[in-house]
Every structure is written in structure tokens, then in C-alpha cells.
Amino acid sequence: MISKVFDQRVPFYEFQTANGSVWLPLVTIKIMPEQGHPVAIPVMFDTGATSTTLRSDLAPLFGASTWTEGDQVECNTAGGQVNMYRFDARLEVLGKRLSCPVYLTDTLPPHPAYQGCLGREGIFEHFGFGFWEKDLQLLVTSHP
Amino acid sequence: MIGLRERRRPLRLGTEEEGILSMPRKPRAHYYGIEADERVRFALTDERLALARLAEAFWGSRAYPRERTAARSFADLWRQVHETLEVAEAEVFEGVLESDAEGTVAVEYQPEIALGAQERTPEADLDWLGSNVEELRHLYAGRWIAVVDGQVCGSATHLADLMQTVQEGGMATPLVTFVPDQEVIWRTAYDL
Predict the structure, then answer these.
(1) Is residue B43 in some structural domain?
(2) Residue B90 has pLDDT above 90, yes or no
(3) Interval A69-85 mean pLDDT
(4) Which of A60, A76, B47, B107 would suit a FRET pair with A37, their CA atoms being 20 to 30 Å apart?
(5) Within this chain, do residues B145 and B68 fall inside the same structural domain, yes or no?
(6) Which residues of A are less than 8 Å from B122 in CB distance?
């Protein structure tokens, strides 16, 4: 018998669209700037993503005027190889403050519900996750 | 869990009849947004006394930068608590303050203190976004928006301009997102 204890959950948010409801597993991450107020952005919780990838026009949140100020890296994605730019970020994710890399790309389509994908690198190791498909429950422990 | 109760310093209160708040060092007075000498008299029903009581417990518990903006309301103070502390620590702090408040501040302010603790979060704003996304597309297509407490508090074509509005307006942790002016592809593996 394996028993795990979870202390929070990643909610699925309902979005009303012209064609009915869509449910998305979203997380708000706080981006902590060197100066000024933090801001929160919505991102899709994505266990299949190696790293956290955000829209290129979020560069000002990381102290850059353009996304190409980051370190250029080539990444393999489902759609092929793309250029991304890496920034070191200070984030608050699911109640924990973390320093981790984020990658900006111009290949993400604009979307009001999320500004990118929350991926594993530098983040998932601080948590444990459990998923129940039947009732769309994505549970989290902060003490893996 | 962190022993907040042990670390914070008690605020010296006078008798209930007098309603005296003793502030031993004058510079601390500016924390409360109150012009004051060493000893300041309040009616115990004064909202500021309740606020000062909670602020002292918070600032007394932390090595807190003095230049921090003074809390002007319970909601302000709670916002500062959540911006400064880890989530688990903030929850402990709320519990300590709510229980302390029962014995130290006027009854009429206790519901407001509790409401301060339940202030809206970016997650609540995401809920609101989900219910209003089509209307937002009509109003803000092609713009970045900042949402606080279920209201759009700023919008701009460029994110850098919105960030300037956020900083100048002192918005605490707004939810920032982009409202596309083109058709949104909603269908994903998570559709029901």
C-alpha cells in the first residue's frame, strides 16, 4: 500500500467560449522583479513540458526590453526545432519562491487564459503531483 | 512552521478606558500612517488602533525594511503579509492575528480583519477572467490588461507601458494577461 498526502490542488478553470465551456489546468505564477511590484500571470500546468516556456512579449517582466536579450538556445519541440531565449527568473509557484530558468519564444499563440506553459526544470522537483482523470483533480504536495 | 508568536514583540496597550497605544520609538509611528509623539491616544474603537495592533505584530516579527509603505487598511496589511511571507507562514500569521484580534480590538473591526485575510487573490481573478473572457475580447482586443479584485485596472498595447501603470498605481500583484484580437483556439486535450 502506497499512501501519499497532498496539501493543495491545481484547479481546472472553466472558460466560457462561443462554443461552450473549456476547462484548463491553470496556475498563476508570480514573477518577482528586482524592483517594483510582482505581477501574476496565468500559465498552463504541463507535465509534458521540460521547461517553463512563455510568450516572447513577456520580456519586460524579466527586466529586458526584448526577448532576444536572453541567452539563445535551440529547443526541440513537438513542432520541430525552435529558437528560444533563456532568462533567470525569480518566481512564486504554488506558494514556493523559486529561482529557475524560463524560456521565451515567439511560437506560442496569443491566448487570454494562459501566457505559456509551466514545465518541469527547476520547479517540479520541489513538489509532488497526483492526477485523477475521472474528476479532473490535480493534487499537489509541497513536501515531496 | 515558524514560531511567529514567539518572535513578534507585543504592543504596549494602555487601559481600555484610556485607549492608549504606547509607541516607544517615535520613528515607528510612520509605520502606521499616523502622526504621533511617543504616546498616542486613540479611542479603542478607532480603526487605526486595530490596524496598528496587527501591523506591530507583523513588523515586530520580521526584519522588515523601514521604507516599506505603511499599511492604510486591513486589506493593505494583508496584501503586504502575502507579498512578504511564504504561503504557509502567512496562513499561520493570519491565524495568530485573528485569534489575537478577538481580545485586543473593538468588536466592530473584527469582521473587517477577517475580510482582510480573505482578500481576493490572482487565482480568484483567474476565475473572474474565465467568466468574462468574451466580454473582455470585445473591450480590450489586442491589449494587455491588469486585473485586480475582478476589475481591469489598466490596459495597454505594450506590456512595458502596462507595467509602468502597475508600478505607478501601486497595484499589488495584479493578474496580467493578453487579450488577443484574433480568433482564439480553445479546443485542447482538456475539453470536456
Answers:
(1) yes
(2) no
(3) 85
(4) B47
(5) no
(6) 28, 30, 40
Nearest-CA distance from A44 to chain B in Å?
11
Range of the domain at B130: 122-179
Q: Does A11 touch chain B (CB under 8 A)?
A: yes
Report the SS3 class of residue B167. helix
In a shared domain, residues B64 and B134? no
Whether residue B190 lies inside any domain: the answer is: no
Closest CB to B175 among A24, A28, A110 = A28
Q: Same domain for B31 and B103? A: yes
Which cell goes with A17? 467560449
- The answer as to whether B191 is a domain residue is no
Neighbours of B6 (CB within 10 A): 7
The answer to whether residues B96 and B131 belong to one domain is: no
Looking at the complex, report in whole angstroms how far the Cα of residue B44 sits from the nearest Cα belonging to chain A: 34
Q: Which residues contact B104 (CB under 8 A, 6 or more apart)?
A: B13, B50, B53
Measured from the Cβ of residue A80, the count of other Cβ atoms closer than 10 Å reads 8
Residues B12 and B98 placed together within one structural domain of the fold? yes
Q: Confidence band (pLDDT; 50, 70, 90) for A133?
A: confident
Q: How many structural domains is chain B composed of?
A: 2
Do A110 and B131 count as a contact with CB atoms less than 8 A apart? no
Nine-digit cell string for B78: 494583508
Residues B45 and B130 both lie in one domain: no
pTM to 2 decimal places: 0.65
What is the Cα–Cα distance from A93 to A42, expressed in whole angstroms?
Answer: 11
Contacting A residues, span 81-140, partner chain B, CB-CB under 8 Å:
95-97, 109-115, 136
- Whole-number Å distance between alpha carbons of A73 and A51: 12
B188 and A22 within 8 Å at the Cβ level: the answer is yes
Residue B189 domain-assigned (yes or no): no
Minimal Cα–Cα distance from A15 to chain B, Å?
4
Shared-domain flag, residues B41 and B129: no
A48 at interface of B, judged by CB pairs closer than 8 A: no
Say what the ipTM of the complex is.
0.90
CB B92 within 8 A of CB B81: no
The per-residue pLDDT of chain A, averaged, comes to 88
pLDDT digits (tens, 9 = 90+) for B123-167: 778 888 888 888 898 899 999 999 987 889 899 999 999 998 888
CA distance A110 to chain B (A): 6
> Is it the case that residue B39 has pLDDT exceeding 50?
no
All domains of chain A, ordered by start, with CATH?
Answer: 8-141 (2.40.70.10)
